[in-house]
Give the backbone structure.
Amino acid sequence: MKIRLPEIRHNRAGFEALVQLRAKAKDCLFDDIEVDMRWTNWFDADMCAPFGAILYKLSDRMNTVRIVNAPTSIDRILSKNGFLSHYGGNKLPDTWGTTIPYKRFEAKDDRYFASYIEEEFVHRSEMPKMSVGLVKKFRESVFEIFSNAVIHSQTKLGIFSCGQYFPKRDRLDFAVADLGIGIRQNVLRNAGLNLKADQAISWATEERNTTKRGRIPGGLGLKLLKEFITLNRGCIQIVSDSGYWAMEQGEVISGELSYRFPGTVVSIEIDTADKRSYKLSSEISEKDIF
Amino acid sequence: MKKNITLNVFEIVGSPLCVASDDGQRVYERIANAFKEERNVTLSFLNVSSLTSAFLNAAIGQLYGSFTEDQIRAQLKVKDMQPDDLALLKRVVDTAKEYFKDPKRFDRAVEEALGDGGDGPKR
C-alpha cells in the first residue's frame, strides 16, 4: 500500500492528516506500507511522536513500513532527530542542537525518560537560555505528561516523544504520544461517563475530575500542565481517540477528528523568552502542609 | 519514647529526579512502616531537583488512605523543600484528603455532570 503524506504541522490539520493515514492503513497485515513524502512540504519535527506511534502500531501488525521521497530539508531534520533511523535512514549529527530526539519508551521507563530530558534538553548548551524557574516548570510538565501516559494509558506498545526548538520564534515544542486505551475509554470505564472523545478530554482537564481509582490518589497532572501553559502563554493540544482539544492563550477549542488516534497525544508549545520567575507570591510553611 | 527517624528521599529513590509513581511507592512504604512502629518521620528532600504529582501522590497522598489526618499531622514532617515544591505537595495533600474523604466522589461527579444537561461538565 502506498500512502501520500501531506504537510504535517502541529495543529488540528496536522493531527487530522495523521489519523487519516492511520485509517487508510489500519487493516493492513503482512503488507508493505510506503509512506510517500514527496508532497510533504512541511513537517513539524515534534509531530514525529504521534507519527512514530502510528507507524509503530502499523508495524506491530507485521507490516513493513518505509518512508520514501522526503524532501531534502525534511529528510535532514528527521535524520537529525533520529526519526528516520527507525525506518532505514541515517542519524545525522544535530550541529545547531535544536532537536530533542525522537525516542520510544516502555511504560516502565520513567527514569530513562527523565534522564533523556536532562541530557537532551536541560544540560545542552544549544538549548534556549530560559529562566531557571521556566526550565524547572518545563521539565516538570513533561514529566507530568509522561507519568500521565504511564498511569492512565495501559499502553503495551510504548510511549513516543520528540521535541523541537525554534530559536527565531522563541518557541519550544514537545509531544508525547502513547498507544493506550485513550481518555474516552478511561472516563467511561472509571467514571461511568459515556462522553464524546473531545468532551472526555475536556472533562479530564478539569480540576475535580480524575479517572484514578484505588489506593493512590490522582488528578493533578493535566491541571498543573494547563496552569503552567496558561501562565507561559503557550499552547497545549491533546488528541485522544477521535477527540481534539487545544488551549492557546487561555482559550479552548475542541472538536472531533474524522478518524481515531489509537491512543493519546499531548503536545505543548512554550514561549522560551518568558521571563517570569515562577516563584510563588506567598510562601507556604512546612508546618502548614498536612 | 521511640526514636524519630529521618528518611532521605534522594537516598531511597537514588536520583534527584523524583518523577515515577513506583519510586513514590518505595517512599510510602518506608513512611508507613515507621508509622506502624509509632515513629515520627522527617522526610528530607535534600538534593531532589524535580518532583511530580504522580510521585508525591504515591509517596504521601496515599498515606491518607491508611492513616488519619491527625496521625499524619502529628508524625510527619518535611524539610529541605523548595517553596514551589512545597506548594505542589500542599495541593497533592489537599487532593488526597478530598479523594479519601468521600469514596463515592466519582459517582457524585457523574451525577452532577449528567445533571448539567447530560453531556458532561461545561467549561
About this structure: Residues 106-110, 116-123 of chain B have pLDDT under 50 and may be disordered. The beta strands of chain B are 5-8, 17-18, 41-44, 50-51, 76-79. Residues 57 and 92 of chain B are 6 Å apart (CA to CA). The helical segments of chain B are 9-13, 21-36, 53-59, 69-75, 83-101, 105-115.
